[in-house]
User: Fold this.
Amino acid sequence: MVFTTDQQTLDDLKIFSRNSGDSIYGIFNKTFTRGGSALLEEMFRYPFSDSEIINTRLATFQFFAKIKTFPFDTAQIDIAEQYLQNVDERTKISADGDRTANRLSNLVLDDVNYKFIQRGVAALISLLKALCDFMGDLDTEHAPHQKELADVLNILGEEDLGSLLEVSAQERFSYARLSEYDLMLRFKNRLELKKVLLYIYHLDVYVSVAKVAATEGFCYPRALVAGAGILNLEGLYHPKLVHPITNDLHLDESKSVLFLTGANMAGKSTFMKSLGVALFLAHMGFPVPASSMEFSVMDGIFTTINLPDNLSVGNSHFYAEVLRVKKIAKELSLSRRLFVIIDELFRGTNVKDAYEATILITEAFARRKGSIFVISTHIIEAGEVLKESCGNVDFKYLPTVMSGNTPIYTRKLKSGITADRHGMLIINNEGILEILKNGKIT
Assistant:
């Protein structure tokens, strides 16, 4: 089954961003080739909901972690890619042009098409040699993706292409020899060579992601079969934080709903984004920002953290929240196992309605088996009711320690419900009322 998510979730978690350096994708996009970058983006757009596929990709990254540098010349890859894309028959070099070439060799060397083919042939020969050397050093017996590996080895072993491994890419080919190689590479074996380039792009992603994991200290999670609703995280943090404070979390069917409280600025949203990012990356089969992680595979992830209203169609923020919960409910009604995050449920309405709706919706979520829900709220009174009505709700909070009139945010999860509310304290500390009273900044 396809892993399901939506644009709201991608935006909440900043999986992609206009500024690529600000995105989760940007953290991992340390690829060397344009083809590798495009392949990495495709992986980000299509996470998995199959534990075997996820664990296989994770094992692939771990296997290639031992390779410290990308063993191919990226300039040659670009030349080879452009060369193989040009399949216009009119650009072929005629094999019977030797006599003309001998008489007009200086003109031929200046010919754009001739140089294009010469560079493309030389680049492909160099890449085939580099790949052959790489395969010679690779532990092919234990390498992942044996079928793809066998396909590449078979291509390298073909008589035509194998003969090129004895040719020097630095050699100045005769007109007839260049015509022969061009026909062999660009037309006769084009599809096979495209497979070789695709394999190199995969190697680019494997090596780059493994290097990011090592540099950033990310862990390789373990995917469990779907259905148990298990989520075990140690040392979780958000990858964009410079000096993150880590947290642990353990959920299963006996505690499938996390009810999170804490004062403004206590770190609830950051923690929830950290959770969402970890689950998203884990379902891609990627390393995650944590010290360890195991999880039951889900069918999708939906978050509601930075939900915009839609004034163009007259929707208030509250109505946008209602529609969002309705969408999640519809997904759940299709018997999908989902990971759901909602930050401050029904913040867009009055306290009484928010209180009643928070209780009813959370109770309904708690009855859904196989899914995991994380809900934050400032309405702590709802938590007291849920303690009595739902046995599978885990209550956590992010505490605030006061230093005089200054709140100190620990960012560390604790069990229970907090009554911390420091909105007016923050307003007073910023001197807003004094500014409005005196008309000047003190």
